[in-house]
Specification:
Layout: H1 4-26, H2 29-32, H3 37-54, H4 59-63, H5 65-72, H6 78-83, H7 88-106, H8 108-120, H9 124-139, H10 144-164, H11 192-208, H12 217-229, H13 238-265, H14 273-277, H15 281-299, H16 304-323
């Protein structure tokens, strides 16, 4: 039976969460009784004052509230609000970094990648296809460097396990190599299969940055320069960028992958040394699948952090997409891609 002491203990633990939910609702009469821009602005000021005084959110997070609420509540448009912080496109870049850091911090991207690679297949060729595809898709939303860094540990673990099972080599075997001698890692030369995995991942990260406007800082730099120089233009929309660049991204990525398969893995040359090096059969696929399963087991169950970050990421993408979708009325003109991002 729940006692008053239990309730007080729960309040002592969760009072910040309760305050974040209840306080904004309690302040609604401020502008509901007199719905003018001035009273809506007062609502935001009092809301921030309460959050600042009690520090229920980090002070820097509370300071970002006007960027979301001022345009949404019709108090001030996005560009004027953003200029109090940075330029409009700079704020979008900061928002992209925040989402990317949250995804990396909770390892949500690694969990998704491991599941997807197991689903696609675990032969050398399928594994490479899965890795470049996932790196490309992830790099659409986070930086190229972060996307590459995410995949490197997965590649290292899989290749090392295959080598341990005698189903491949990470580094080339030197002539007259003494198996007991200590080898300087800096002097080792990677095999062509290893080079295919690492180079393909780097290519995929760079190519994936083309697909989404937040995928690379250079995309947002173009957006900022374009909208500054051509003030009367409709601007660079999230949806239009996707429509124009995702087909280009795919058209560049998969011919690149086919060329790398031909050059490094003997595609179309079944009798070549490269093709024989990746022919590990069912045993190799089982080894790879076991490595991926072990890494997933090490990660444990899906954490609350991963769930919340996943929901926030989907929410951000939906808000971007629905701002000006084309088939229906989107967000008002004074709300831009910078505002509808949960920064």
């Amino acid at each position: 039976m729940v006692t008053c002491i239990d309730i007080l203990k729960a309040l002592a633990i969760y009072w910040k969460t309760i305050f974040i939910i209840v306080y904004p609702l309690a302040l609604l009469p401020i502008f509901l009784m007199n719905n003018t821009p001035a009273m809506r602005c007062l609502y935001v000021v009092v809301l921030m004052a309460g959050f600042w005084v009690l520090e229920v959110l980090p002070l820097a997070v509370t300071a970002m509230i006007p960027l979301a609420l001022f345009p949404t509540m019709g108090i001030l448009d996005t560009k004027k609000t953003s200029m109090a912080y940075f330029k409009d496109s700079n704020m979008m870049f900061v928002g992209g970094l925040i989402i990317a850091l949250a995804i990396e911090f909770c390892n949500l991207h690694t969990r998704i990648s491991l599941h997807a690679i197991k689903l696609i297949g675990c032969s050398y060729r399928r594994l490479n296809f899965g890795l470049v595809t996932l790196t490309m898709l992830v790099s659409m939303w986070i930086s190229n460097t972060a996307a590459t860094a995410m995949m490197i540990p997965i590649i290292e673990a899989v290749l090392a396990e295959l080598e341990g099972q005698g189903l491949g080599r990470v580094f080339e075997k030197e002539e007259n190599e003494d198996p007991e001698a200590e080898i300087d890692p800096q002097m080792q030369r990677p095999t062509r299969v290893t080079m295919c995995f690492y180079i393909g991942t780097a290519y995929a990260a760079s190519i994936g940055g083309l697909g989404c406007i937040v995928g690379s800082g250079t995309n947002l730099a173009l957006k900022g320069i374009y909208e500054t120089e051509f003030k009367d233009s409709p601007g660079v929309d999230f949806n239009k960028w996707l429509a124009a660049n995702v087909p280009l991204m795919v058209a560049i990525m998969y011919p690149t992958w086919v060329w790398m398969q031909f050059w490094f893995m003997g595609l179309g040359r079944p009798n070549s040394a490269d093709a024989k090096a990746i022919n590990v059969g069912k045993e190799g696929e089982e080894v790879t699948r076991r490595v991926l399963s072990e890494k997933l087991h090490e990660m444990g169950r899906l954490s609350n952090h991963e769930v919340m970050v996943g929901i926030m990421f989907v929410f951000a993408v939906m808000l971007w997409f629905l701002r000006r979708p084309g088939f229906m009325k989107g967000w008002p003109e004074y709300i831009t891609d910078t505002t509808v991002r949960p920064d």
